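Dear Dr. V.,

Thank you for agreeing to look over these. As mentioned in my earlier message, I'm a first-year student in the group and I'm still getting used to reading structure tokens, so any feedback on how I've presented them would be very welcome. I ran two proteins. I've put each sequence directly above its structure. The first is here:
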Amino acid sequence: MSRSTDHSLAISVGDQVIGARTSLGFSQRELSRRSGLSQSAMSRLERGLHSGLDLDDLQRLAAAMGGRFRFQLDAPFLADRSIQRDRVHGRCIGYAARRLRGDGWVVASEVEITGSAGPGWIDVLGWDPLSRALLVIEIKTEIIDFGRIQRTLGWYQSRAGDAARHFGWSARTVSSALLLLDSRAVADRLRDNRDLARLAFPERARELEGFIRDPARRKAGLPQGLAMIDPLSRKTAWLRSSVLDGRRSAPAYLDYADAARRLGR
């Protein structure tokens, strides 16, 4: 029986055992003697097959080679989930949701979606009952990996229709927007990624705000949009332009820490 790519964890463990054993110059028989585990079970383990060994057995096997196993959960969207729970991000979600409702949208926040990449959470999902337009909003208070932000938003947009049906929303069009905290640190990172950002987000604050106020005018929906927001602002025009539009006015905040201090007052 050959090793299966459907059992990547078992294969990974087997490869680690083989690597450690051969580096020490142990045969399977010798490692079996040292660990007290059967040689047939170790043979199956090293081939990525079901061996019948439990976690305690693996610890004994590692100890026999002077080591220990460490397991790490790789869940790429858990990092985004932890960010969603912070104060600044939460204030931005509430601010965007309140503004959308003011323009007649029905809104849900932190909407969970699932897929082959794991679970994800749409920050704000808006639905306009008249035009049946669906709007996916991703909010970022900092920019770490702009390419990943773009890919994540694209995935959210592709899954948003299924998520909307759970609320009884039948969407005719699905649009998306990236809303960024209006800080100098974010503006600097956006400037560093301006070529990619301009290509990925062809619509800006003015077009996005026009779409939110009257989505029926864009019958085909809106290409991905990008704008800055200040959750403390009470101005009617709540979506702010960015450095991509040649903006020269100073951002509302210096960085995330500055926003956290001011929003926490």
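The second protein is here, in the same arrangement:
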Amino acid sequence: MKTSSLIGHVVEVLEQVHQGRRPADAVVKQFLRARHYLGSSDRRYIADRTFAILRHHMLLNVYTAEALAALRVPAMSVPAMSVPAMPVPAMPVPAMPVPAMPAPYPPVMMAAAYEIRCAEHPGADPLAEFDPVWRPLLPDIECAAFLESVRTVQIPDDIVNDEERFLAVRTSLPQFVVREWRTRYGREGSRALCETMNAPAPICIRVNTLKCTVGQCREALAQEGITAQPTDLSPSGLVLAKRINAQGLLSFKQGWFEMQDEGSQLLSLLAEVGPDMTVIDACAGGGGKSLHLAALMQNRGRIIAVDVDRLKLNNVAERGARAGATIVTPLAASADAPPEELRDLRADVVLVDAPCSGTGTFRRSPWLKLNLTEEGVHALARTQRELLERYAGFVAPGGRLVYSTCTLLSEENQSVIESFLRDHPDFTPLPACAILARQGIRLEGQDPWLELLPSRTATDGFFGAVMVRSS
């Protein structure tokens, strides 16, 4: 397919992402599924460009604004995109407010700015590639003039001279997130973290040890043309050399592996589960951690996978059947109460993998950066505290409560746990890194909590806390 046609597809996808309320990966997946005429390289181009433009959205906004100002294009002649509120997690979280960040410019402008200023392999003739798409959408602005202008403009001095703001713009991260990371991790640590968060994530899988060993899975993948290397930390992980269509692989259909980040795998290990235990996965979602726990328990015992989203729970059943995890039972909860079926149950382990802002997954889900607000984080923290309160009572005496998120904001992590422990003296924190060390996983200087920084561990960003209930 001609590059100009591919660019047209990218623009169409970006329009749908900005105008809808679904995650960008779901939008891209549906878009590509509906267009059977696209070849594999075309699909890869569309997906990669879409995510790259979203990843650099703030920087591209600045370049575009400067280019239009240099051309003296009136703002009223540029049709603005509307940005919806942040998608609400499947929990009783108040709707997120529309972000204060200016609405992005038309996707064709953002795509052109990306091509000129950020693309690793820019096209040989951007004008020939963009003009056929540009003219029907922006007939009052000359494409050639914009391309030349965006090529030469610089980030304004008032941004460059503000170190915090410049880092936020350069890595397209919300400034309040950059501010916290600078405070907590220092100038160099925060810079490394922000830059890592603005790069694509590695492709990681968890081998299903109920059906095969890591070595057997690696060999099966090699036979299907997929090169894989063992992960550095997780004993069940493999890092793949390229992105895959998992559903098309025989090894996946046979249940030999699941797509799961290495850091997420470590959170399951904090539970230290064993055969014949009873486990409640209180925010199971699609069931990734439930399936991992089932493998760690050798498919002996009982796991109740709870979630308010019945569609996700249906997915748990399907994935469990493929994985051979027969001990996982999906159970729907209401928005404001646990399932009635749990009323008299006391579990050896309760896992609360709480809905969160997802700042630790920005490189894997760059669209989350577009509309994250401080108000949204406050709302999520309230829900996280409510979830801990709601499910702590199901922990048996001597049992373990594990709290985890995929965010790196203290309001959703340390502050939630500290507040919970003040109100629940019958729970005592356990050193998370010592738990992992017993399993051969060495992480320095993080006790009592586990905090995984992508700039240090090459995982997604995660937080984990382990608490034991007094006998």
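From my reading of the second output: The radius of gyration is 23 Å. The chain has 19 helices and twelve strands. Does that match how you would interpret it?

Kind regards,
E.
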